[in-house]
Amino acid sequence: MKTEGMSEAEINAKHAEKMRRKKEARDKIIATKTIEKGLLIVHTGKGKGKSTAAFGLVFRALGNGMKVAIVQFVKGKWQTGERAALDRFGDQVTIATMGEGFTWETQDRARDIEAAKAAWEKAKAFIADDEHQMVVLDELNIVLRYDYLDVDDVVATLNARQPMKHVVVTGRNAKEALIEAADLVTEMEQVKHPFRAGVKAQKGIEF
Fold first, then answer.
1. d(Cα 115, Cα 74) in Å, to the nearest integer?
2. What is the per-residue DSSP string for 126-182?
3. Which pLDDT tens digit goes with each residue over 71-123?
4. Range(s) of the domain holding residue 117
5. Same domain, 82 and 46
6. Would you state the pLDDT for residue 76?
7. What is the number of domains present in the chain?
8. How many helices (H) and strands (E) does the chain have?
9. Helix 109-128 vs helix 151-159: angle between axes, to the nearest 10 degrees?
């Protein structure tokens, strides 16, 4: 927008007209979006913030009076701030902490597979029920990456969910089949991380 030689009032008027045209065009686009459905959302990538973004959706859903179920496939032993906060919502949110830590911590592949299978059974129950409008499968991508679960079974179950149920999947290295099935995929890209500078995990940031 060229403003050279224009008064402040003229600049403001020109800006208002530009924004009016932009809003008009935007409103026309929005009017064409008429489908309402439960979304399959995947947060993946090497950057920080995948689970954090998922819990942001959880709090948004809770604020709208929805009931949410969360299955943690890996971080079950971690005492996190979000878990403490969600405890205050009572029966509006259900958290199943099924994992026993990352595989390099447990160092027991057979136990990890059993934990993943148990978590998936719990997840399937939440996905199939009529109670929860949103289900978060935190770090599901991790166990899929190690082939602890059959990705085809997972995708088939997610595709067969109830029409209005939202499912959010987190974890790096999302399988291509899951990405293909998803409605919304966000890849977190790491630009800079304090861990590389020797900074340990911080309360309120990492947990």
1. 9
2. HHH-SS-SEEEEETHHHHHHTTSS-HHHHHHHHHTS-TT-EEEEE-SS--HHHHHH-
3. 999 876 656 788 889 989 999 999 998 766 555 555 678 888 999 999 999 99
4. 39-197
5. yes
6. 62
7. 2
8. 8, 6
9. 10
